[in-house]
Here is the input.
Amino acid sequence: MDVPPVGCASGWEVGAFTTFTTRALPLRCAKPPKSTTTLSSGPTVRGNTLRTRSHRVSRLSIPAPQRRDLQRDPGDEVLVPRPSYPLFEYLAALESVADRHYGLFYDHGWFIDFHTIERAINQRTRAIVLVNPNNPTGHFIRRHELDELVALCERHDIAIVSDEVFSDYLIEPAPDSVLTLRGVADFALNGLSKLVGLPQMKLAWMITKRPMPELEIVADTYLSVGTPVQVALPALLELRAPVQRQIIERVRENLAVMPRSLDVEAGWYAIVPVMDEDETVLALLRERNVLVQPGYFYDFERSGYIVVSLLTAPEVFARGIGW
Here is the structure.
């Protein structure tokens, strides 16, 4: 596969949490543009020249942010989906931001409850977070939902943040599913953790709709990503296709023997409706030595779901899932 050159300006830039503009959509940068980007705390790329620098920045030198540039004040709010990954609440608290929830509902697929978004928005709302595909429901946003969401965010001057770490793990996406919001979302996020199945490597990036020089200061503040993983990035990306192929094959094989589960478009989890999630989880653990997670771990709106990992070795999964 084509491997993006490390440090290609406005391309695949490497940093503690790096940024680059939507001109970076291809996996390969044919010719670096003239704009300046930064490898976190020091190296700066201008065209094909990499140089290092140190800088002391006063608060007054940071460009005045637009509202949708997502610089926020303590007490500002971010809307996050429910159900979804349970870490958002803690991340928001660490940044002195309040998380508010909007709902998802299931009707032969998962969909956004826009009434809950409208009720949650106020003058302190700065962003709406999507997980596309969602973890753990495994659904993508649909085209008509995206159109409505973009119009809503334009109307309220709210940024869209799209977390797309599972987007390569397709199972059976719907015809009108939107597989990526790059170029639409104000911030699109991804990283090696899921892309290559290497959570220990600690390298992630964001793609922005427009240049945001102030994010260079944020990247410097959080320090640079480790040099070894930067140097290894091209080789790690080479592993992407074979690693993902093995994961997808395993996920599909395990999903095929599930006795029942809700529709899933992507990712590596299945949602199973049950009568009593607490009792089911405990009974599976006690009687069959099978570990699953209750739905309330992921803030499901109502009780009655368990979350099953599809990454287990198929022969083990088939024995454990026969409840």
User: Anything to note?
Assistant: The two ends are 42 Å apart (CA to CA). The chain has two domains: 59-211, 240-320. The mean pLDDT is 81. The longest strand covers residues 98-106.
